[in-house]
Design goal:
The chain has 174 residues and is an all-alpha fold. The protein has one domain. It is 80% helix and 0% strand. Helix 1 packs parallel to helix 4, helix 1 packs antiparallel against helix 5 and helix 4 runs antiparallel to helix 5. The longest helix is centred in the N-terminal third of the chain and has 46 residues. It is elongated, with a radius of gyration of 20 Å.
Length: 174
């Protein structure tokens, strides 16, 4: 019984140590998405009248909005699919397999997925600054924020990923 408790304590310490950097990066990205949304909301409202904003959103901006919507949807699907497949891939395991090595590989994947979530919010910022009204671009910010929240490396989520990895890979980590 004590061995299981010690094993869990060691595992939790590894998770906290290896997830700290990713957590800091993800919280910074969440904050930057909020800042992007505030900038997109405030800047066009301060610089132009509502009629000028509507007029500025011409055919080219509407076409760019349509294209960025499709790209954002594809990015969301890709991020969610990668999260379900690559995290639990037995190919992440080599002969020198340790919990630290797995968490470091997951950190790289997390940072890439978080950057894609932020990219969706940047799409919203760019298209808003091009002249599209904020009420038609706020979904970019919401999608980026929610996607970043989903990929947030909280300790209990990392432990669940480890359990799922052990189940799919058929190997015990500790």
């Amino acid at each position: 019984m004590l061995a299981d408790f010690e094993k869990q304590q060691i595992e939790m310490e590894h998770i906290r140590r290896e997830s700290r950097l990713t957590m800091i990066i993800s919280l910074a990205m969440l904050a930057s998405i909020v800042v992007y949304a505030l900038v997109a909301y405030l800047v066009p409202a301060l610089t132009q009248s509502p009629a000028a904003v509507t007029w500025a959103a011409g055919k080219g901006v509407r076409e760019a909005w349509n294209i960025l919507n499709i790209v954002a949807i594809m990015l969301i699907i890709a991020v969610l699919a990668v999260r379900k497949t690559i995290y639990f891939s037995p190919r992440l395991v080599r002969d020198d397999f340790t919990l630290d090595a797995l968490l470091q590989r997951w950190r790289i994947i997390d940072i890439i997925l978080l950057s894609l979530a932020e990219l969706i919010a940047i799409f919203g910022l760019v298209i808003t600054l091009l002249g599209m009204p904020f009420r038609q671009t706020f979904h970019f910010f919401v999608a980026g924020f929610l996607l970043a929240l989903i990929n947030l490396p909280v300790t209990f989520k990392v432990r669940d990923k480890i359990r799922m990895f052990e189940k799919y890979a058929g190997k015990s980590i500790l």
